[in-house]
Amino acid sequence: MLKPHQYQVMHAALQSRGIALINTPEQYRTCHYLPESYPWIDGYTPRSVWFRLDGTLDLKRLKESLAPFADSSLVVKDYVKSQKHYWQEACFIPSASDLPAVERVVRKFLELQGDDLNEGLVFREFVPLKVIGAHPKSGMPLAAEFRIFWLSGKPILSHRYWGDLATFDAPLPWAELTPIAERIPSRFFTMDVAFLADGGWTIVELGDGQVAGLPSADLAPAFFKRLTLETTS
Predict the structure, then answer these.
(1) Which pTM does this prediction carry?
(2) Which of 62, 83, 97, 210 is most buried, by CB atoms within 10 Å?
């Protein structure tokens, strides 16, 4: 995954050679960084706060940022990625008010991210999802989740996020999702949608379509054929 400044350099270099990428640098940043995409999905995604990291972790700022969550459970990530496969050690925080535990998880997360850290820290309120399995390697819970690829406001692929690791079937709430997708200021992006334990649904996050993985490699031929047809018609 390119960081936004790297994407901007590539975009300019290709543009000088008469090649236009599907998304502008602004569109890329909007869906690649959660703080940029959050305003577009606010109300349909878990409550979140974030702050940039400049050098060492500021514990006072950390405490102040988490105050609105009270005793709620959280997950921590950077502006792009989490360490979800280290669920207990570097992702899940049982209580936002347990500051020693928060610090321990955050420091482990930062250690694992290393130089790959994107901008800063994001804390998201943990919402119980419909769990349909466990990852065979890490043991992390697998949710009933779909990845949807959108192009020019239209879905061109929707598939189980975990591929064959967690099989299930459920109708997606297209009537609610489509108006949200149509207003996202990006031509090509992904929307990860999960079902809640209580029967509702939530948008987990958006992502730029160019750097998002397909849930299964078997989907690639049909996906790229559809993408080519839609972008050249």
Answers:
(1) 0.91
(2) 83
